[in-house]
Amino acid sequence: MVDIDVDAGPLGEMTATEQGVTAVVVAFGAVLLFGLLSGRLAPTYFLFLVGLAGMYALLSLGLNSQWGFTGLINFSVAAFFGIGAYGAALTTASSSPVAGGFNPAYGLVVALVAATVLALFIGLPTLRLRADYLAIASLGLAEVVRRVVLNERRWTNGNLGVRGIPGFFDGWPVLSTFPEAIPGLRIAVPLGATVELGEPFYRMLLNVLLVTVFVVGSYLLLSRVHRSPWGRVLRTIRADEDLARALGKNTYRFKLQAFVLGSLVMALAGVFYAHLNLFVSPATLEPITTFYVWVAVILGGTGSTRGAVFGGVVVVVLREGTRGLAGLEGIPLDAPSLRLVLIGLLIVLLMRFRPQGVLPPQRELIWPDVVDEAPDRPETGVREARGDGDD
Amino acid sequence: MTDTVLRVENLRKEFGGLVAADDATFGVERGTITALIGPNGAGKSTIFNLVSGFYEPDAGRVEVDGVDVTGLEPYEVADHGLIRTFQTPRKLEGMTVREAMLVGPQDQPGESFLRLFTAPGAVAAAEERNLADAERMLERFEIDHLATQPATDISGGQTKLVELARAMLAEPEILLLDEPAAGVNPTLRNELVAQIRRLNEAGTTCLLIEHDMEFVMELADPVVVLDRGSVLTQGPPETVQGDDRVIEAYLGGGA
Q: Which pTM value belongs to this model?
């Protein structure tokens, strides 16, 4: 069912699906551009949406390296996202009950360390066991983390949440003063009212810059490791762990590494969220996030890095797009319910017509230089006519 | 002088009240193709799992090349040179045949996450070497035309050949084959016999479980017969074939 198109290199022709996806993305971009030009979509809000899309892309990339690469079922995406957000918030915020006011760069480090500790806490005992145990334990973990954050007021402010989180670039040279220093712009858009690009716009632009760095960095890292002997062992574990063990691979170590790696990427999404929203509360840890991210990974194509990014963006489009729809006449549902109905419908259609996802992995994953530098291999097709008995 | 690659001594495993392996003792001499046969439930698969580290024995000892590997993890047993295959190999979804082959080689630098970044040159060099080895191995098994096929698209018999070829990339001291001929069409079955014989002539020691008696008699010497978890008899195939106790065990006569 999975097509593996070996001959299509980076310069090879795109498959029909890729062409379709490209067309949809271009069309969607055109709609957004029209929205921006006609003044119906405020530029700052648009950038906020881009930030959200990047955040979901990060979460999907993280889950994809656990479930897509290795077959680890993690139902506590929200917990790793939350620990990233709280790690950053508690380190940097002015209202932090522990030790706030540090530079956001320290917050990033604290968040990543906290996520590693949490991943090891859940991974060390369960990854030795059958795959189901991680799923069960992680289901509980998300709720445990949420309850701890809610009830340990002296550490987390409880349900009041943490306020006064600075922007990520506050305290940095140049970038911290950039939003105020840059002169505001008034742009007369062709199809509507004048659009003002002031300080909030530039602040949001910095956020988008941050999430872009996170997403691009994670994407490059994950594509690299996916296409390596390390990633190959992960994929073997996913298909048949006993086979990997019989071939001398210490599968426990590989699973633990993949689990921590995915959790770190999820925590990055949390760090970004804290500095985007400037406020985190236990609602940040709602299990619905986990559900959305699973939808994103399955929709994009399990095991595919670019599919994970695509799925993350689609989920944000669905989530935010339904806000507008609910205002229309004749739709008897409010936005949150409509959103869930749409996402449910999407999953049903996907499972019925394209269970492998929109952009499943389809290329051979051998260390890049090696395949490109070995053009003298006999290609498939040369001996294709050969039968089994033809010796 | 005998040179024992695999030594199994008084190996015992119980599942609840059932004794699956009952003081099984035998050895596999270097350079032989030894077959492990016995009626259903005799404990052949249990012994395989005990030897390769998938089960932990209740008692007894397993030695590979003179090193005690009792109770080690499968990957550690593999490190000592014992590689096993499975009765029903699962296919590696989403991989091509040559990609699936590349899981075989041991101690690849690219399997360390850190070295992917600290030593990309060494990783690329090893990958290139392994790919060349894999393709040479596929050629030797006369399945190189499958190299870039999806691993999920090849027949059951071809999967067995690929599995055998991949196991050879691990350069084992001893190869444990779990029913290599099961579910394989007659043409490929003969191919498998030829390939296993070729490997053996090139110096690989094999221990195989097989129900197909013709296959066993054609290939194996000696044959170890298991019954109810312990070794009933062992010897050259002709002797074993004519042994009354063996016939009785197979026909289920019992005392």
A: 0.88
